[in-house]
Design goal:
By secondary structure, this protein is α+β, with helices and mostly antiparallel strands. Helices cover 21% and strands 24% of the residues.
């Protein structure tokens, strides 16, 4: 299963991912987005959709190694 990772070096904290997919992302203490852990399959698919809404491309798909 693939999952997404937020690159906090790129994230500007606009909240587009969190606002659109609150079950998949949260804001950390610095106001930057981070992905939630242990997502269901459906939530993981929604998180992948957030790749397209990030204005700075901070959300990237990461392939888990088996």
């Amino acid at each position: 299963m693939n999952k997404v990772k937020v690159d906090q070096n790129i994230c500007i904290g606009c909240g587009a991912c969190f606002g659109s997919y609150p079950d998949c992302f949260e804001m950390d203490d610095n106001g930057l987005a981070k992905e939630k852990e242990n997502l269901t399959e459906e939530q993981a698919q929604e998180a992948e959709e957030a790749i397209d809404i990030c204005p700075v491309g901070a959300i990237q798909e990461e392939t888990e190694k088996d």
